[in-house]
Design a protein that fits this description.
- The complex is a heterodimer of chains A (452) and B (293).
- By secondary structure, chain A is an alpha/beta fold.
- Chain A folds into two domains: 206 residues, 3-Layer(aba) Sandwich (D-Maltodextrin-Binding Protein, domain 2), CATH 3.40.190; 217 residues, Periplasmic binding protein-like II (D-Maltodextrin-Binding Protein, domain 2, 3-Layer(aba) Sandwich).
- Chain A has 20 helices and eleven strands.
- In chain A, the strands form two sheets. In chain A, strands 1, 2, 3, 4, 5 and 11 form a six-stranded mixed β-sheet that branches. A five-stranded mixed β-sheet of chain A has the order 8-7-9-6-10.
- In chain A, helix 2 links the parallel strand 1 and strand 2.
- Chain A starts with a helix and ends with a helix.
- Chain B has a two-stranded antiparallel sheet.
- Helix content of chain B is 73%, strand content 2%.
- The chains are: A alpha/beta (452), B mainly alpha (293).
- The interface between A and B is medium-sized, with 40 and 26 residues.
- Chain A: Keywords: Signal, Transport.
- Chain A: It holds the Pfam family SBP_bac_8.
- Chain A: Part of the ABC transporter complex UgpBAEC involved in sn-glycerol-3-phosphate (G3P) import. Binds G3P.
- Chain A: Its main location: periplasm.
Chain lengths: 452, 293
């Protein structure tokens, strides 16, 4: 199956090359656009359906969507293909790869340039600020096409809340209140009151954004590669020390790196979890109890908290074929047309309601709201409302994070957290170590990309 | 006295050797050369800019505390795996060598785990020891033993050692069994007549006679623990928690594939290559010579 697709793709590529030279024939044979993505089922199938709809809507371009493994694997595959002069036209890149893609200026074509060159128009004024900001350059021009964005929220087991005598309809809004609820849950015999997925994303990145404190200098890395981590700050130390103490007290349980803890809530292993808003579909499918969604907690004595949360997920990048090979105008045009298709209000709205990812635009959100979707799917609007918390205007600290080698830095922070939860270090040492090791990664990235 | 036969001409022997030479060159020397070359470069992930930095990647690696920690982890891991796998295999082989009923079935069953792929082996162990879904893991939790290898470095290490050793026991078992069967009966009988009891016979006769096999296996097991345990570690712990099970080979993968730090990753693999060369030389030059047959 795969081989056949590959062979087809190869044949198509050669024909596409011929067409580039002979414009007259171009009307009959569609230009092939290779699109590599990293979404597993059922999301991958939904993505392929969007692509099929695009292909059916016109004859000039044909987009081939191929699954290349998870986000990390897709990134590695695209980079390897670029080095072998055979990169895909479009690649889906997770948010932590943004800085890497942006620094590789000859490998990618920024979205603003692509649109300008092809004359295709996508209106970004209406796109949710939190999404637009994450993928734009410091001057506001778009670097890549936001596609599947999620944010993170709290999920909780209402049955367990009732058992502990807590109000099941009201999730605690502040961290001290969360700890109090956890104590009551523990007293009611619940072994693991809370856990978290994506420890770095939730407890460091989201935490910093919501409390309006910088994660790194240079506007969280947006305005320069010479950025340094600033996570060793009093508020971060306070929160980490709380987590460590709660872990010792048995209120918090570390469930593993990245998405490892995703299944704990739906399996009835814990009462509260903090996870990607995309976990909703899984909880809905697996949970055999009444559950609820709520916004992420904060410390209410921090003056600017709570601000909007930041996004995760992935965006779409257009790539050159290789370091020395470009693409024909027809190919660039096809890429732009496809990206514009994704931004169409009805396509974007359907993607949002089908998958649970954030809606792309504010007007799209209003439309879905008017259709009564959120009345039937209670809590599905919490992520969006949380994105708009604090008025929806972003600060330098709440627009996102752009660090080179970010995947590595995330792991470094997770490793240091693991050490702390094993009782080997306190919050201060944790953050000192993470900062020192993270800065080494940043310096290496800066050095490798200085001339790039 | 043997008479040396000398073939004339160089073309025919070269021609006959050619396929092997091509394969060796293409699949061994070329990639190894590539690794050595990239170990002296510093480049971005896309290969758009690369600078020659000489041996800087090597000094960085050696001065990196996480690399040195990984080297320590690897030493502990490799020797534990080798010793555990060797001793269990020897025990099983000695038992299987006795005249017992159904010994061929017993032997066949013992060889089976070798046919299990490392990743599959790891998944089997996962189903046993995962704190939430594993049979034994859950039993331990019920028994109020704080078992969670995802957060306890010691437990994680224990788990990957046991899983990796289990995989290697079969291989060692075959060699030990063959070694035991090649010990002449007459020697053992002579010892028995001299009044040596089975335990004494084992340590004074059998064990020394097995020493070439043991040393060969020791090298093979160390190399196995160094290089072939990637699948087990990847499936069970991903090198965690907090790098507790990150061996050198796993670090090469993490730095090269996940962190896209190609220069450092290449330098680390060159160092690993040197370690293996050294181990093989030690095996052939010194140990084989000193072992009494």
């Amino acid at each position: 199956m795969l081989r056949r697709t590959l062979a087809k793709g190869a044949v198509a590529l050669t024909t596409a090359g011929v067409i580039g030279g002979r414009q007259a024939v171009a009307q009959q044979d569609p230009v092939e656009i290779q699109f590599w993505h990293g979404l597993t089922q059922p999301l991958g199938g939904m993505l392929e359906q969007v692509v099929a709809d695009f292909n059916a809507s016109q004859q000039r371009y044909r987009v081939n969507a191929t699954y290349r493994g998870g986000y990390g694997e897709t990134m590695v595959a695209a980079i390897a293909a670029f080095r072998a002069n055979n990169a895909p036209h479009i690649v889906q890149m997770f948010e932590v790869g943004t800085a890497t893609m942006m620094a590789a200026s000859r490998a990618t074509k920024p979205l603003w340039e692509l649109l300008q060159q092809t004359g295709v128009n996508i209106n970004f004024d209406d796109v949710l600020a939190g999404i637009r900001g994450y993928y734009s350059l410091p001057d506001g021009r778009m670097a890549s096409m936001p596609f599947n964005s999620s944010t993170s929220v709290s999920f909780y087991n209402k049955d367990m809340f009732r058992k502990a005598g807590l109000d099941a309809e009201k999730f605690p809004t502040t961290w001290p209140a969360v700890a109090e609820a956890a104590r009551k849950l523990k007293a009611a015999g619940i072994a693991n009151p809370m856990t978290t997925s994506w420890p770095t994303w939730l407890m460091v990145e989201q935490f910093s954004a919501i409390h309006d404190i910088p994660l790194a200098t240079k506007g969280n890395g947006f305005s320069g590669l010479d950025t340094e981590l600033t996570i060793n700050n009093p508020l971060m130390v306070r929160h980490m020390q709380n987590l460590i103490d709660w872990h010792k007290e048995g209120l918090f349980r570390y469930g593993g790196r990245d998405s490892a803890a995703d299944g704990m809530l739906s399996a009835g292993e814990c009462a509260m979890t903090f996870a990607s808003s995309g976990t909703r579909a899984r909880i809905k499918k697996e949970a055999r109890f009444e559950w609820g969604t709520a916004m992420l907690p904060y410390y209410d004595d921090v003056p600017k908290a709570p601000l909007n949360s930041i996004i995760g997920g992935a965006s779409l990048w257009s790539m050159n074929k290789g370091a020395s090979t470009g693409r024909s105008d027809a190919e660039w045009k096809g890429i732009a047309e496809f990206l514009a298709w994704l931004a169409k209000p009805d396509v974007a709205a359907k993607w949002h309601t089908d998958t649970g990812y954030l809606p792309l635009t504010r007007s799209g959100y209003e439309r879905v709201k008017a259709s009564g979707f959120y009345k039937e799917n209670v809590g599905a609007d919490i992520p969006i409302e949380q994105m708009l918390r604090g008025g929806g205007t972003l600060t330098e600290n709440s627009r996102g994070v752009r660090l080179g080698g970010f995947a590595e830095i995330r792991n470094i922070i997770q490793e240091e957290m693991e050490k702390a939860f094993q009782g080997q270090q306190d919050a201060k040492t944790l953050l000192e170590n993470a900062t020192r090791r993270g800065n080494v990664v940043l310096r290496n990235f800066e050095r490798a990309n200085r001339n790039g | 006295m043997r008479k040396n036969v000398i073939f004339r001409g160089k073309l025919l022997p070269l021609l006959l050797l050619l396929p092997q030479l091509v394969i060796t060159g293409l699949f061994f020397f070329w990639p190894a050369g590539q690794a050595i070359w990239s170990s002296m470069l510093r480049e971005d992930a896309f290969g758009l800019s690369s600078n020659f930095v000489g041996l800087e990647n090597f000094t960085d690696v050696i001065l990196d505390p996480t690399w040195r920690a990984a080297a320590g982890t690897t030493a502990v891991f490799a020797f534990s795996v080798a010793i555990l796998a060797l001793s269990v295999a020897l025990l099983l082989a000695v038992q299987a060598d006795k005249a017992i009923r159904g010994s061929s079935l017993y032997k066949t069953l013992l060889i089976w785990p070798y046919a299990v792929a490392p990743a599959v082996a790891a998944v089997l162990w996962l189903f046993l020891f995962h704190p939430q879904i594993g049979l034994i893991g859950r039993a331990l939790s019920t028994a109020q033993i704080a078992w969670d290898y995802r957060l306890n470095g010691g437990q994680a290490m224990l788990l990957v050692i046991v899983a990796s050793a289990w995989k290697q026991v079969s291989y060692n078992f075959i060699f030990f069994l063959a070694g035991l069967q090649s010990i002449p009966k007459s020697v053992l009988e002579a010892a028995a007549i001299d009044g040596a009891r089975p335990v004494r016979r084992f340590w004074t006769v059998v064990f020394p006679l097995l020493s070439p096999t043991s040393f060969f296996l020791l090298t093979v097991n160390l190399v196995y623990a160094f290089f072939d345990t990637f699948g087990v570690i990847h499936a069970l712990t991903q090198g965690g928690p907090a790098k507790a099970t990150e061996t050198l080979i796993y670090k090469v993968y993490i730095d090269g594939v996940e962190n896209l730090n190609l220069g450092s990753s290449a330098a680390q693999s060159v160092i690993l290559m040197l370690i293996v060369i050294a181990m093989t030389v030690v095996q052939f030059r010194f140990i084989e010579r000193k072992v009494h047959y």
